[in-house]
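User: Show me a protein chain along with its predicted structure.
Assistant: Here is one chain, sequence first, then structure tokens.
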Amino acid sequence: MATLFVDAALLKLANRYIETLLQNGLKYLWNKYSALPGKVTSPEAFQSELHSFISHSVADSVRPQQRDFGILVSDLRGFTPLMEQHPPFAVVELLNHYYRVMIAIIDKHGGVVDKFMGDSIMALFDSKDNPDAPQHLLNCVIDMQLAMDGVNAYAKRKGLPGIYMGIGINYGTVITCELGSEIYRELTVLGDQVNMASRLATYCLRGQVLMSEGLYRLLENDVVLGHVTEMHFKGKAQSIMVYEVLGQQSTRRVKLPVRDSRKSHRVDADLAASYHTIEDKLVSARGVPAQVVDLSLHGMRIVSRQQQDYLDEIRITVPFLAADNAEIYGKVLACRPDGDQHFLINVEFTYIDDGTARAIRLFIDHHL
């Protein structure tokens, strides 16, 4: 059965590839045979010459190269529980619609989709013959986030909850190469810069765009900044500065929408809870006891004996709010000492099911 998705990056590469082969191949053969007017070649000889040319061209085109790329990695917040709690075919239909919208935007800005990774998209902006690749990358991610209103209107018509996207962007030198075997192979890029973009995407809140310091230096006169945070990434000896993108100011003067209000009504609470930390989409086996001390429609504050880092992802269970112990996913916005061996942790929700959302709203309305 054919795969559900066709990689737009490979299609583009194939088209360019064929165009180059035709242009260079015909030019090569014309130059060779036009200089020999008395020469008459057989169809077999011509086919052999063309086959040899194409074989060498293919080998040259897939040889590993170093080049600068803008790198975009998008990731949907809370997609796994969405898939678990709603009809899978409806979710796939929504995901395909989301892909169609985002691929069109990436293509419009000169990017190429490299691959899909579940609910994630990786796209590349080649610097070859394009010195404005960083600006095109910035404009692209802004348009992608703006387009989420339309995607969520589609979700609502299908009876599904809204989805939210985080995007990590970076710029730097990577290796372009072909990976695989005779059975399956693909053209892709590798390197630390790719890993950085992917890591930034995992740290994003709903509707957020985070960029690396290197990319910020190229766009500092063009980008509207939000929070600038020093973060420690796994495998990195030194801390890294991470920059929140709020908009573009030089030509378009557009700002990203705020997907969740962090200033909604908050009420005091005293609810038993527990949470599990999440890393690389793997939920830890050990639960951490906690107490919910205040609650809003979009987040909560909890007290725990375990310290958490900024933008850690956690899965929270509050038995009081749902009969089936529904789970809430969130990101840590702040963590500070609170009394003897305790920490007060601010959490913003990244996913919450409809039933738990209604229970929280009723709780807040009752306590206002």
